[in-house]
Amino acid sequence: MKSKLVLIAATLTLLTLSRPNAQVGGVSVTSESHREVTQVDGELQKNSQEVAVDGDYLKAFTVAFEAFNSDALIPEQKRSLENYTIIFSRDKNCIYVFFYAKRLESERGLKGGETPRGRDVKYCISRKSYKVLDRIFFK
After folding, report:
1. Of 32 and 44, which is predicted with more confidence?
2. d(Cα 58, Cα 86) in Å, to the nearest integer?
3. CB within 8 Å of 59: residues ≥ 6 apart
4. 16 DSSP assignment
5. Most buried residue, 1, 10, 63, 119, by CB count within 10 Å?
6. 43-60: per-residue pLDDT in tens?
């Protein structure tokens, strides 16, 4: 579980680097640097960027990630989380977790929901039960 949360934090950091001091849904980012120096895996981390995410988004992500990892329609070689940008949205019934496959520069103009590295898919997670209500592949 700890490794999943580290992956979530890393993904959200990448998602929000382009939006300093932004608040989107339950995700907020600040561009103010930490004054502390911390040590992570033997390396000093200076001026790290803070990302705050509501717990309901993380809970929905863990459900969607489990479904994503076990989905027979997503080839195993396309399940590496590093190849995706994760996008959250919500309405009154669902939290949507969108796994957007990263594109190479040469793939940016291509239409379709699949690249050599991943397959675009959105999961609708119930805000009441935190169960998958729907899965949508993009073409």
Report:
1. 44
2. 11
3. 130
4. H
5. 119
6. 666 667 788 889 999 999
> Do the beta carbons of residue 94 and residue 125 sit within 8 Å?
yes
The tokens describing 22, both together, are: 């932004």
How far, in whole angstroms, is CA 6 from its chain's centroid? Answer: 11
Going by C-alpha positions, the residue among 94, 98, 89, 90 that lies closest to residue 125 is: 94
Distances (CA, A) of 98 to 30, 36, 88, 95: 23, 34, 6, 10
Burial of 11 (0-12, 13-18, 19+ CB in 10 A): middle
Residue 119: CB atoms within 10 Å: 21
Asked if residue 36 has pLDDT above 80, the reply is no
Q: What would the mean pLDDT of 9-20 be, rounded to a whole number?
A: 45
Q: State both tokens at 56.
A: 């309901």
